[in-house]
Amino acid sequence: MTSSTISDEGASDADDAPLRDDELRELLVRARANDDRRVVQLITSYVTLRRVMADVIASIEAREGGAAVAKTPLLLRARELSGSPDRKHSGFSHTPSGS
Asked: Which of 16, 46, 47, 63 is the 20 to 30 Å CA partner of 40?
């Protein structure tokens, strides 16, 4: 199964919005309570990727200007998915174990 297949399955406009930090924290709490290590790893990996992507977008904007991001649909979508205003203070652990 390809990543485009995964993202396209059952997608609707409502499903396109990125999960908010509070939603991710709630999922993480539930996964830890159920000792679901795979889901904990998935959530922490997603948060890490989101942070890295936000840093990459910020770097591109700083180096090449906002127009470089604005004219590239893929970068615009990446900014939307990673652009949480409180991403640096989200309270997520940097380790998959959450400790």
From this structure: 16
CB 81 within 8 A of CB 53: yes
> CA torsion sign, 2 to 40 to 46 to 19?
positive
Cα separation, 26 vs 12, in Å, equals 23
Contacts of 53 (CB under 8 A, 6+ apart): 78, 81, 82
pTM, full prediction: 0.65
Please state the domain extents for the chain.
19-83
> Could you give the count of Cα atoms lying within 13 Å of 67 in the half-sphere of its Cβ?
1
Take residue 92 and report the two structure tokens written for it.
């997520």
Residue type, 43: I
pLDDT tens track for 69-81: 888 898 888 888 8
